[in-house]
Amino acid sequence: MKTKFTVFCGILAVALLSVVQPAKAEDKKSLTFAIIQTEEMSVLGQRWEPTLKYVSEKVGVDINFYTTTSYASVVEAMLSGFVDIGKLGPKIYIVAHDKSGGDIVPVVATGRPPNVFYPEPCACYFGTLATKKGSGLTTIESVKGKVLALVDPGSTSGNALPRALFPDEIGGKKLEEYFGRIFYSGSHAASVRAVHSGKADAAFISEATFARVIEAGEVKKDEFNYLWRSPEVPLDVVTVNKKTMSDELIKKVQDALAGMSKTEEGKKVLKEAGYYAYVLSDNSKFDPLRKILASK
């Protein structure tokens, strides 16, 4: 079995993917996996190639790997039938599940190892509002009128939760009413760099990705102030497209991913991907997040 790595970008990606006629579920000889490009393609490829090779061999199908520049592109590619498997953030998963009429569902959650923000392994994470140390921006009041970086319209901790929950901290105001300017950085790692370089005064960032940037040696944890922390959020999930995959094939993919932590080979692959396990997941795991988003 083999994997093929390709990059699609933005609207062009959706246009190209929408013209592809998906194979019937029972005829599948290969699968297409898509993910948002959260960091350099070379780094992303190194992280995911061992995992996809492992799953390809366990399931007995070839896997094509695509990256796009937005969560929306991944979802549209799944809705078009071109993409069979997609890694989605929690909030955009809820959108995808609803838009697909329940055909896009999670099979496993990505369980992260302990990191500099949270000392226990967990299929969860938190979002944080960070500023650069030495900037004088050490309180929520101090960032009023400043430049804020968000991640992506489909991001949970980098957009949805701040918009839903942070107004409680700023007198009920919308983010646009409180901050002087807001821009989307495109990724959590890019938001870390924007704050560190001074391009942004503050940013809402996933602690899971923040930890990876710190562990890579790009920045240090103590170079930042942390002004706010979100409630616990389900970590990203690997989702499947029930319209393009048979129940049997879905089960094989789920078993391959969930079984990694039970073998030495699988543990090695997980380590390379930066996870401690893939944890079984289903749609009901997102009900608490649905309540948070619906209540605001």
Q: What's this model, at a glance?
A:
The chain is of the alpha/beta class and 296 residues long.
Structure report:
The chain is α/β, with parallel strands linked by helices. It has 2 domains: 3-112 and 236-294, 3-Layer(aba) Sandwich (D-Maltodextrin-Binding Protein, domain 2), CATH 3.40.190.10; 124-233, 3-Layer(aba) Sandwich (D-Maltodextrin-Binding Protein, domain 2). The protein has 11 helices and 14 strands. The protein has a 7-stranded mixed beta sheet, sandwiched between helices. It has a 5-stranded mixed beta sheet with strand order 9-8-10-7-11. It has a two-stranded antiparallel sheet with strand order 6-12. α2 (41-59) links the parallel β2 (30-36) and β3 (62-68). α2 (41-59) crosses α9 (247-258) and α2 runs antiparallel to α10 (264-273). The model is unreliable at 7-21 (pLDDT under 50).
SSE order: EHEHEHEHEEEEHHEHEHEEEHHEH
User: What is the overall number of helices?
Assistant: 11
Q: What sort of overall outline do the alpha carbons produce when their principal axes are compared?
A: globular
Just give the CATH class of the largest domain. Answer: Alpha Beta
Count of domain modules = 2
Mean pLDDT: 88
Low-confidence parts, pLDDT < 50 over ≥5 residues?
A: 7-21
Briefly note the CATH topology name of the largest domain: D-Maltodextrin-Binding Protein, domain 2
CATH architecture assignment of the largest domain: 3-Layer(aba) Sandwich
Question: Approximately how much beta-strand content do the residues carry?
Answer: 15-25%
Structural class call reads: alpha/beta
Radius of gyration: 19 Å
Total strands: the figure is: 14
- Strand order across the largest sheet: 1-3-2-4-13-5-14
